[in-house]
Amino acid sequence: MGNLLRVLLAILLPPVGVFFTVGLGGQFWLNILLTILGYIPGIVHAVWIIARQPR
């Protein structure tokens, strides 16, 4: 799945973008927590996770 599609998913539903990038690991659960605490921190974290993954 291309990074552009993951980023779009991360903007709409941040945990979904992280899930497609790293699976059900610790980063996924951290993103769910950040999204619950505030939508913007969830988006920032998701885009950061997607951007730092090797291509």
TrEMBL record:
Record key words, sorted: Membrane, Transmembrane, Transmembrane helix
Localization of this protein: Membrane
UniProt main location, coarse: membrane
Transmembrane intervals: 7-26, 32-51
InterPro entries: PMP3 (IPR000612)
Gene Ontology cellular-component annotations: membrane
Family: Belongs to the UPF0057 (PMP3) family.
Protein name, UniProt field: YqaE/Pmp3 family membrane protein
Protein species of origin: Microvirga aerilata
